[in-house]
Design brief:
The protein has 144 residues and is of the alpha+beta class. The chain has a single domain, classed as START domain (Alpha-D-Glucose-1,6-Bisphosphate, Chain A, domain 4), CATH 3.30.530.20. The chain contains 3 helices and 7 strands. The longest helix is centred in the last third of the chain and has 27 residues. The radius of gyration is 15 Å and the shape is globular.
């Protein structure tokens, strides 16, 4: 099991951060590894929505579908994928911190077909990527 958690403080109101970060159409703007997002269900985003993502990770192109399992607008978003080489649950949480927003990004999953040792090596790589992604998100939102 791999569980990676990172967070950042974004000097923008929570509603703005949550709206932008939870929009799958914006994912490729702030996630370095995501190259496309295709809706499989009608908009708007809600529990039960499904979005297919294409990403590059460790030199490979990965395609996976996230099912959105929890959505509390402006507070929490949970999405899960069960297929592919690395079934994953991703959670975003947003909270007020003064006039800013604390965003927490958490990923957990079980690398299928990998040894337990592979998970040990994947966690630091995932953490670095997630920190970079949150830094890009922070830059985008604070420069608007």
């Amino acid at each position: 099991m791999v569980h990676v958690h990172t967070e950042t403080l974004i000097h923008v109101p929570r509603a703005v951060v949550a709206e932008y970060a939870s929009n799958p159409d914006k994912a490729q703007h702030w996630y370095a590894n995501i190259t496309s997002a295709t809706w499989q269900t009608p908009r708007p985003l809600g529990v039960g929505s499904r979005v297919a993502f294409t990403a590059r990770f460790l030199g490979r192109e990965l395609e996976y579908v996230y099912a959105f399992t929890e959505l509390v607008p402006g507070e929490r978003l949970v999405m899960r994928t069960s297929q592919g080489p690395f079934p994953m649950e991703t959670t975003y949480t947003w909270s007020d911190d003064g006039g800013s927003t604390r965003m927490i990004l958490s990923n957990r999953g079980e690398p299928a077909g990998f040894s337990t040792l592979a998970g040990v090596f994947m966690a630091p790589m995932m953490r670095r990527a997630m920190r970079k992604d949150l830094k890009v998100l922070k830059t985008i939102l604070e420069s608007r």
